[in-house]
## 1
Amino acid sequence: MSKKIRIPTPLRKLTQDEEVVEVQADTVGGAIAEMQARFPGVQERLLDEAGNIRRFVNVYVNEEDIRFLDNLRTPLKDGDEVSIIPAIAGG
Amino acid sequence: MKALKCRECGREYPLAATHVCEFDFGPLEVVYDYDRIKSSLSRESIVKRSKNMWRYRELLPVASEPTVGCQVGFTPLIKADRLAKKLGIGELWIKNDTVNYPTLSFKDRVVSVALSRARELGFTTVACASTGNLANSVAANAASAGLTAYVFIPADLEQGKVVNSLVYGARVIGIKGHYDEVNRLCAEIAGKYGWAFVNVNMRPYYAEGSKSMGFEIMEQLGWRIPQHSVVCMASGSLLTKIHKSYQEFSKLGLVPSSSYKIHGAQATGCSPITTAQKAGLDFFKPVKPNTIAKSLAIGTPADGFYALKVMKETGGAGEDVTDDEIREGIKLLAECEGIFAETAGGVTVGVAKKLIASGKIPSEDSAVLCVTGNGLKTLDAVLGHVGHTREIRPSLREFEALLDSDTAMAAA
């Protein structure tokens, strides 16, 4: 078993149009590093210079925003789904 | 329109249905050719045009004549003397979008732009994630334009807002979750189907429609920028676009440059932006909303960062009000000015009251309150708090008895 990362449209050029990528890492930060190794460029799109999630990127583990969990240290277990979503206006 | 441009890194993109920068996820914004606009747009040319939001059309992002929502906007700007007296301020104006056409909220402004642009780009299905007002507007405007509409809303929305989407034949999907969860799902849906999602892939165009509220305020005030503007915030987009409208008119020489403050209003039960503003932070912490102001219940406000920046740059304040203060705000506006606003309007009035009382809006100054939606849509929020009907039999004697007791009460 592994963890699924759902890739948003703006990143799919880097993942050769893969919509879902499977990773083995056991934290969100680890998953981003693992994706970076396979799809160079992913990390700088998601993280700022200080290594934090960019201001307009929202990351969810099983539908919960990681800012309500443990941010990049949020643990991942087998079967978890991670969504990466750009911030959306509206109302 | 010249291009779309990332607000973070400045990279440019073609004028397509796309909303975020591929490099840093920053929001894309429409770039205009202001030199060209300056040559065709003047006070004289504007006043000759029909009284709707499209009289400023050079500053709205459509390539040709608009085809959806041609009669939207130019809502009344009311001089609110009775409310001004009650709140203790010299001059007060209400920009009354409770009577915007056709669905009684400012959202008709953004939707007419988004759908006109969607048609230009060849879309036949439109969609949105909404706290209610946007859904109503997408549903109605799509119906009149013959477009198919899917609207996604939190399942626990006020009945008025649900019916107001269903009646137009839109496909209404209630999501068991709050707005931020609706949004997350819609971001994933938008990437999957070739639809024009007004607040997702059409966002750069959509958001610009809000500027028309600011343009109208300046024109209706006699071509000037108000000293103070109080704007309610959900995602924070409206506040940033009101600011942009003031800057654009000033840049084009349509109004004299003057200093102004833009103040942001939220409900205490969902106040990520005002909480950050009060703490002097330039970033916000997302929250899980719990407020009767459902149209403002966005815990992860996409434009929160920029809204904070506007308040800081203009010297405006952020303030929030409780559910009881929201209801009191609704009643104040209704009883003083005869305008029945939805909960978001109660937030704006309640916050204005606080800002005037604390001196953040000085009592000798002039302010405009942006009232964005109609109270008939959120009856549930005030039911039981606005008094009750007194029933009598059809008898003159019973009525006179009732009147006597009123007189006695007034005398006491």
## 2
Amino acid sequence: MQVTGSQFTNTAALFGNDLSTFPDFPAEIRAPQGTLPGVSGFQVNFSSTEVHTPGDAVDVLIAMNPAALKTNVGDLKTGGILIVNSDSFGEVDFKKAKITSNPLEDGSLSGFRVFQVDLLKLTKAAVKDTGLDAKSVDRSKNFFALGMCYWLFGRSMEGSLRWIDSKFKGQVAEANKLTLRAGYAYCEATEAYQAVAYEVAPARLPPGTYRNLSGNTALSMGLIAGAERSGLPLFLGSYPITPASDILHELSMYKSFGVVTFQAEDEIAAVTSAIGAAYGGHLATTTTSGPGMALKMEAIGLAIAVELPLVVVDIQRGGPSTGLPTKTEQADLFQAIFGRNSEAPLPVLAPATPGDCFWVALEACRIAVKYMTPVIVLSDGYLANGAEPWRVPTVDELPSFPAKFRTDPAGFQPFMRDPGTLARPWAVPGTAGLEHRIGGIEKQDITGNINYEPENHDRMVRLRAAKVAGVVQDIPDVVPAGDPEGDVVIVGWGSTYGSITAALHALRAKGHKVGHVHLRHLNPMPKNVGEVLKRYKKVLVPEINLGQLAFILRGTYLVDAISFSKVEGKPFKQSEIENKVLEVMK
Amino acid sequence: MNASAPLTRKDFQTDQEVRWCPGCGDYAILAAVQSVFPELGVPREKFAVVSGIGCSSRFPYYMNTFGFHTIHGRAPAVATGLKLARPELEVWVATGDGDSLSIGGNHTIHMLRRNVGLKVLLFNNKIYGLTKGQYSPTSEIGKKAKSTPFGSVDRPFSPLALALGAGATFIARSVDVIQPHLKTTLKRVASHKGTAFTEILQNCNIFNDGAWEEIADKDQREDNVLFLEHGKPLIFGKTKNQGIRSNGFDIEVVTLEEGGITAADLLVHDERQPSPAYAFMLASMDSRPGFPTPVGVLRAIDHASYEELVNDQVQQVITAKGKGDLNKLLRGAETWEVR
């Protein structure tokens, strides 16, 4: 189903629609088909106008079995189109889905326009001459559904036909193509579908070259771009974990960029090998999700103490502990900002959309190299797997921040500092005359020698904090979207951007005075945040956690931030935010 | 420093006050390393010493090279990252029995499995020193220490046997107080490609004094230590009259000239044996009553180093595909124009 969804998405993107996707799948690899835990869904919202979310409710639902129907029918609009695979609506299937009556007969679907299709029988008929085995035929049937969608929305099959040829071989490729075409032809020939075919014209996006891009791919490209623009080779130390592994997979493909990927024995080796590579003068990064972050924290403290650049990527997922591996959450903000022993500050950034993962990864590289500090990027499962059209920049448009290694032994001290950034020199092993020692033990200011003196420790704690706080000089002020002052400001971070933006447009269209501040830099925050928040009567902070940013805003700016939290493993709906804003305005 | 002048031991000393307890075996190891490094023909800036946590891990502060004192148990992983980034460096790891075998056991075995080009000096004193005297994974059963007032009940393991199990290509053992042997061993360590894993038997005179008494004490040493030499029979004893002979799948200690046994009946040391079985027999010999503790190079075989394989693969891909083009990467496979 994930393949079918991404094929449709690519085709819609190439047609020029704006879009947003929400792949939603179980943590289990092949949970039994037809059971409730086995339901794998893919929601796509595509439009001729701007799209910010995968949509609150769906216009068309395709249910391959009763379990999928039961799980998703609640999201289908009244009067919406429901296509069901009637081959999978037998007694056995009802039992698997834990339902007692046949929804196709019990009247429960009377509010929808239901189309029953014998997908399996039709697929079998389409591929009967290929000699394909039963199991492969069963797998082919999703292409029948895809073919139907292409006809219903007037989309070309060409892209998917090409893709099938590149992905499959021989009779399987042949069968998949036949099935895809059969689905298309089936709708074309069936009168009932003529009445429900949709036209969705291309969207009017700002001019440029566009591609469809998912968050994890964007993030991987951002890291490669960061390496190129700093003039450093990229090193990734990583341990497989959902939903971050795709970055390890992506970067492993890009050895032609000189990327070294190291699949470590554990999360700790992943981050410590990266610290070793940073010591050796590479642009070092480690990628993980919440549980892996917890394991890396001691080592991140080391990177803070020895002041080496490092980009740590956390693709947040539901927790605590193993939690919801494939579902999204924003509950690692405290962990990122506060989750280490002692005073251990570092910059924290968060991308707002899948495409923004590119820009934020690049920005993280820039800050890490310029300030000689580890930086945490907080993406999440929704951004990682979601996709959107992305305007492709040229390399010349990207910021350039060439790293400078210390080479001159004259006057060198390992913990002397640049007066502007407070960064220490990057003195890479192999450089004659710069032999020196670094370590996690407290260091004497400037010389870096072991030092336990009270005043020195106080000075070093404050220097490390001042360095990170000083990043603020280097990041743009926030400019609120919507009204620059008014009744309510919605403050968001990370993947809530889409839902908040959609809600903001709807509220302002109704004449409400609402603004939106979205924080990409969470530590330090842009210097005008406190002042901007005070321009509104109310501050509302929607988050997929129990109010972590709201807590920080209250503590930092003494504003009465109202937390709006939901922790269901899925993004906010536009309507939820809209209603909450109206509620707090009362 | 005059770049062309030959390096001396002094060039590798730092101005930092050494903070080990007076009488600690670590002083002897530091002295040996500082005297061997100048003889290796490597410029000083090419050395990097990486350590974890523990008494032994203070080592980098006293070596005037690049040095990185990291966190508990993680030195092999940090060093792996450094060696991958800078294969041209000589990266040495200083660690202890608690650091590398307990908290860092996972990194130790995977470093060995990969055969990363690191020179590992494991200071084995069979005790936790810096935390003030708890038993370690190499302490003998029944060890009475701070956390085991009634004696430890868990079994120790042999660092070298563990290393072999993880696929080590080089294992050696030496002793803090046998300086000439330690220096010779360190030179062998320096010349190995891949992970050179060295156990150095070291005394902790505060928390485990006499840890290796039967080996360190000159009067007992000859009867308890088997000095290994490649191509030479396994002979030990004050009068060189004891030997190791194979007996089926096992080995036995025999006395030369007794019952017509001669040196020709003994096992001959072969550090290049392709099978690790012989080296394993040597590595675990000291735990058997009546057997000596072998020191020297137990095993040294050739295998490509990890950093070589990793960086070769990168170069091969660049050769085959050409250098990556960022503009092309950004565009991806399919794009469309909005005007």
## 3
Amino acid sequence: MHLVLFFIFGGLCVAGALNLLFQRHPINSALSLIVVMSCLAVLYLLLGAEFLAAAQVIVYSGAIMVLFTFVIMLLNAGREQRTHGSKAAYLVGIPGAVALVALLVYIFLSNRGPLGDAVLGNYLVTTSDLSRVLFRDLLLPFEVTSILILVAILGAVALARKEH
Amino acid sequence: MEVNIWIFLLVNVLKVIVVTVLLLVCVAYTVLLERKVVGRIQNRWGPSRVGPFGLLQPLVDGAKLFLKEDLMPTSVYRPLFIVAPIIALACALLSISMIPFGADVRYKGIDLFQISDVNIGLLILLAITGVGVYGIALSGWASNNKYSLLGALRASAQVVSYELALGLSLVGVVLRSQSLRLRDIVNLQATHGLLSWNFFGGFQFVAFFIYIMAAFAETNRAPFDLPEAESELTAGYHTEYSSMKFAMFFMAEYANMITVGCVATLLFFGGWSSPFGHLFPTFGPVAEALLSIFWFVVKVFFFLFLYIWVRGTLPRFRYDQLMVFGWRVLLPLAILNIVVTSLWLAYRSA
Amino acid sequence: MVPIYYYLILSAILFSIGVGAFLIKRNIISIFMSIELMLNAVNLSFVAFAHHWHQVNGQIFVFFVMVVAAAEAAVGLAIIIAIFRSRATLNVDSVDLMKL
């Protein structure tokens, strides 16, 4: 059951990522990325991270990708064109990505003994466990990230404002 | 779980079918309720000819929408044009699966009055609301029409802005009940009847008003209904839609209203618990279950009436007033509510 | 019963598709989205390892990665809007000189 769900949603993730790669118009890439993120949320649920699954959908699919979709609709730049730069990029990009995935898969396969199995229900992190660590042991990084978000808001407003 | 997988599947499929059918019937009759109530507010009858008191009007309306010609302009971006109302309706119907309608009655260990009981039910409701934005945004984009695009961008900006206030207003409730599970939140409010509801005994009235205002904005209902107002932007993001796709947007809006009503009763008004608490004796488990559903329905009906009452009474917000209200009034108030609630709870437990 | 290395291999595949998209695509926004894809792939391997070692810290790190990705997306998209205002194009091959 776990295996079936993993293959369905893992397959959807890879299909969405490949669709992001091969689509010309950025709005189609954005929609396939939303599919990838939602399927990743299901995979987090299978790994026992329930709060992260909800946070993934709320933050990534429901906020960051809405921002991307907004900007794409607002700027309305249209489909990609083929330029000389893109042909050179194909020569470097595809072998580079293939080499990277081959290296990583080789490393993971050669170390698969010590890593065990992921069993459903083996390790479930409730929201209270997560918040206990986040707000006691890791309080300082939490406050630093809130300042980071404040700085990002100020930066985004300052950059995107119309000049008079 | 020791239950047989086939019984589990059968009971769950039955639950889903019953709840979906009931929800769609409720959506249809909510439309009738709105037309009657708004009509009475405006000193006229509302639909009253089709059946006794106009009760067959939704059936006739449904037939009309179904039989209308489904126009699709040639320059629309077809895949998204068709998918956008489906996303809107799917998200509106999905939210109902987290909501418990009545007391915890189980058949062979399967909860009968809630479709799925997850530990993070409240977060999943917020997540589904967040994903529902795409129905609006993509419909405006796919229509290939400047007015639709502007209406869609405005509507999405409105929904995203008020999502923050919505989420933050619920934190006070979660702080009090120490759990994100909807049944736990209601069980905490079931102890002393009216006084232990989160609105009264939990002192979450500020949070309740923030929630109601943010929910009005989220569901694009008056007084925040600028995106779909008929006199502005030529009907906004659903200008190019007709017949069944328009009906899907329409149903999605009313289903969202019902979901908001359900969530407000669960979180602030004690869900299915009676306001009299344990004063009256119960007549057995069947009567108790039916009574719990009765109280839940009465409270949700009250919220629907409130929605329609506000629609008939208040004028519409202008877009900049709307944005200022969401960011500069509701958001600081929601944060203040969280601070005060957590200070009070820390004081009480210290 | 899924072996943990299945999740890691899925994460590796997503990451390298993200790298490939980053190098191949010519639209600035698509490049940005491939960065988000790479961050998500890394999040998946963090959660897989958190499950394996029974540590919550893996999931907390995912939380921080999400926050940083959100901040970065906001600022990056603001920069993209500013670039579009001055150059009127979103093709990276056309914005390769400081001079307009």
## 4
Amino acid sequence: MFLLRKYKTAIFIVTLFVIAVIMFSYDLKYRAEGSFFRKIVLEAVAPVQRVLSSSVKSVSDAWLRYVLLVDIEKENKNLKNKINEFKAALILYQEGYLEAQRLRKLLDLRDDYNYHFISARVIGREQAALSKTILISKGAAHGLKTGMPVIAPPGLIGRLVDVSWHVSKVLLFIDENSNVGAIMQRTRTQGIISGAGPRGLVLKYISKTQDVKEGDVIVSSGMDGIFPKGLLIGQVSHVDRQEASLFLKINVAPFVDFSKLEEVLILSSDEIKIK
Amino acid sequence: MLYYLSLPFLSILLVILQSTITDVIFSGRLVFELSLIVVIYAGFRLDLIRGSILAFILGFVFDCVAGSVLGVFTFIYVVIFLCSFFASVRLATEKIYIIALFSFFCAFLKELMVILFYYSAFKFDVLINMYFVLLPQALIVGLFAPVFFYLMRRVEVYLYEKAV
């Protein structure tokens, strides 16, 4: 009894070790059957583990969502940059497509008229109020000469007035100094087309007795010795039969939109080449 | 008496907390052995009876939850407790580096005992895990033990002041 009291701590510790040894010996031998104590502990652990796991899971889910959002933000930024790049590329392609269409129209025109053409780009516009001229990218070095007719889809736009080595100036026929021999396609009545600046064109010297209607097509007559016959000029937009005058006052709207000229064709030779 | 009654529940909570932290931080690759640090702390602070019961119950709960052979960790935790208890008499257990080194040693010892047990009982060659699991795990215990000891000391001071 005295020994028991004296060494009670040591005996207690040894007892713990013995219990542990018995436990793992038993467990090693009858492991498949499972232990009663283990089941009790697991039953106690399960609800606590469930609560803790769900709360940790919700926190980690929130964190993962945050990380995902950060990633999405980065991705969004990258995608926006890519969209901008693609937009820029698309604009380039559209520009190329439109240019191709314009050039195709020019080529069609070339086929229609069977002339010898030189193509050029519009590189500038005269900004003066009274003068309606444009600058083109070709000159004497490319075979251009003063007076050559200039056309753009769908028809005539003017003639060369100044030709430098690599640049030329085109006097548009809406310029008030411009006069072109013209003929009405329907009635074959001849007159002179003069530029009227912002109002477009005016067809002069058509007698009051002539049959002129709005919408009549005007083409070049070829009588002026500058412009070949049959080039489209415009169509009648208004006919004014003034009492006091001998002639009709006819306003003509040009076919070509002069504000959108980008490429033009110059008839480089007087000779008409027939296919 | 309250201490002995609350021990099983607190042990269960501790082991669950430990497994949850392990899952969150190490994704199950390493085990963050908070229970081992508690046993070492008990060795430094508690008396032999109370501490050994704590180590026994903690080891038993760990055995049950971890799914290892029942009694292995119970046995090992009591051994670790005894080591800590007798070391606390000779070591300056207030110093951080002593705590860190001793915890590292205990963690290493524990892993060695586990390896030896599994090798002798099942002929498992678990020595391959020596560098990738055993050492990092011991390092983690060694690094975190001073933090745990510091926190527990703050709690002790707070409780003591409250009691006074």
